[in-house]
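Kindly draft a sequence, keeping tokens residue-aligned:
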Amino acid sequence: MSRIISFLKLIRLTNLIIVALTQLLIKFCLINPPIFGINSILSNTQFYLLVLATVFITASGYIINDIYDVATDTINKNQKRIIGKTIKSRNAIFWYIFFNFIGLLLGCYIVYIVQKPIFGLIFFYCIFSLWTYSKHMKSSFLLGNLQVSFLTALSIFNVALFDIIPNGINKTNGELMILKIILCYTAFAFITTFIREIIKDLEDMEGDKNINAKTLAITYGIEKTKWISLVFTMLTFFGIAYFQHFQYSVICSEFEYEISIWGINKITVYYTFFLQVLLLFLGFKIYHSQIKTDFYFISQLCKFIMIVGILSIPLFTYLHLN
């Protein structure tokens, strides 16, 4: 039982659930509802295979990351280290290869369904990118942070890429609107992941120094790195504030007949305000953070903010349909 638990920790089961849930919410709350008029390509069963492909490749990325991170993890979080303790390196390598094979196989099948062979490069890119991140980029200046953020955002955008875009975007129905919404969530995932990656560099400074890493935290120090993460937090805040301005403009306007716009009603206003409060709290915690436990808390707070943002998808759709 302990080995099973260790394996689930190795592949970051919670993170995998978040990735899968995000894709499923976009599919069933933005693409499938008939009211939006989306001409989707993938059936529900085929879409599940796309989700599984994403999950398997992501899980393999976590495995190879821990394999290469044994030296730094021994310093940063030896009590939580799995590779070399409860799971042998050769067993981890087997699962890394197996998961990539399954993910690539499922991905190639989805590419065959959508009849876009060039899209197959996306799955090869994800596997290669996760390997290069673990091997080289993680200890580099900003490149590793940007790489992880881009891959997180790509997992969201892939839903539109495989299920909407191959048929073309019809501007006369809801496809363009849904694509824009998906792009907004893609941007949100990118920037919140980027903030979290910067904070994790602060959390792991001690071990990263031991391997001569050149992360943002090591290059510029704690205070400057905190200010950089604060800037991106405020960018997210003002980006959402722009949406809030749109919400208030519509709610305060008078129309000849009743209209319903996705994400525009009193409850969605309150929900968006709650998200903004979380971002302000995040900025406050970043500004006052000093020690490793502070950075760990902020990292988890970033993940919570991302979950709150993603959960707005089913809420906003439910309120729009009812």
